[in-house]
Amino acid sequence: MSKFLIRGGNRLSGSVKVEGAKNAVLPILAASILASEGTSLIEDVPWLTDVETISEVISALGAEVRRESSSTLFVDSRNVNQWVAQESLVRKMRASFLVMGPLLARMGQARVSLPGGCAIGARPVDQHIKGFQSLGAAVEIGRGHVEVRTNGKRLKGNRIYLDIQSVGATQNIMMAACLAEGRTVLENAAKEPEIVDLANYLNAMGANVRGAGTDVIRIEGVDRMHGANHTVIPDRIQAGTFLLAAAMTGGDVYVEGAISDHLKPILAKMKEAGVEILEDINGVRARGGPGSKPLDVKTLPYPGFPTDMQAQMMALLTVLPGNSLVTESVFENRYMHVGELQRMGADIKIEGRTALITGVPYLSGAGVTASDLRAGAALVIAGLGAQGETEVQGLHHIDRGYSRLEEKLRLIGADIERID
User: Fold this and answer.
1) Could you tell me which InterPro entries the record lists for this protein (predicted)?
2) What pTM was estimated for this model as a whole?
3) Domain boundaries, the chain
4) 23 is in an annotated binding site
5) Does residue 369 contact residue 335 with C-beta atoms inside 8 Å?
6) Active-site annotation holder among 118, 160, 167, 326
7) CA-CA distances (angstroms) from residue 320 to 103, 128, 294, 315, 324?
8) 22-231: what fold?
9) Is residue 178 flagged as an active site residue?
10) Which end of the chain has fewer CB atoms at under 10 Å, N or C?
11) Considering the chain, what is the average pLDDT of its residues?
12) Annotation-wise, does 330 bind a ligand?
């Protein structure tokens, strides 16, 4: 097993480039299954274990996937001929469930195991199933998998209202509806930038998707779709992580490629704490920190504060003067990093979905373990600002969402190394 050894106290300074968004490229690769003609070239693809997993999932279905360069993937889905996703791969990563919509639309049937992923709380697939049924599919759930069928008929467009703004359900239903007959109107849809990026790729493939980025998405079904070239949007969660790392160390870091519009709730909270934020067309700069004012943070669906940034923000709050509050309204089990931050000297009390953080003068290095992807990023941020040495274990979680994190941090002054 690998671990990070971090010698805290270095002030981060310089420029770091953000990669393509993990949460955008995974549904895009799933959507490539819809192409019965031509090939796709996906650019700005990060080299992550989750990307490798989804590539293996669609390869096992008959697609050809290969790396053309360190950041470009070639996908040929013309020979997709399987409708059962490989269980051992799907259970590695929740996003693998996103192949169900494209498979159902392309093959008329699909069987996918109930998904795995980070243990951050219940993430049911009922909204996905509701959408497939509304499009005319028969659904069977049992023995750890979901099977959907059209029984030889074509999916039919319908008006679908999501009970919650589920990102995954929005993506899965949107992809299935692209090849359905007639119009689908998806209401109370998720509005994340990754939804817009997926819609742009689908439209480049010949689909007719309108309204992505709002809570009503309209899809006019088409008969066939083809491969297309597409560049993935920058990863807003990765960008936010680097900006918070800069603030934690009182640094001065420019995150190249960060889109400030995608980061509004994060930047607003950093400014509120007293960190200087400078935005331009090519990126975002964080200067100074960690800040002088406590914060009240509540996670919400986009455009609210992202749950994927809650743990990283909490790392910063541990050293802000006064009492800060964090309310996690999206997942019920996303405070598993709290015990590890407490090992480093943080003063955090949990009651239900609310955390009270009383700022301490400094954190102390300790041996800690990442319980999930974003918790791991939070522990790295904490280690960078702590006094002494911090060992972070559980790097397989961090590698799911951050490619060569230690190398990028070293380039801006961090004393961090990966030890096998």
Assistant:
1) Enolpyruvate_Tfrase_dom, Enolpyruvate_Tfrase_sf, MurA_subfamily, RNA3'P_cycl/enolpyr_Trfase_a/b, UDP_GlcNAc_COvinyl_MurA
2) 0.95
3) 3-19+234-419, 22-231
4) yes
5) no
6) 118
7) 48, 41, 6, 10, 8
8) UDP-n-acetylglucosamine1-carboxyvinyl-transferase; Chain (3.65.10)
9) no
10) C
11) 95
12) yes
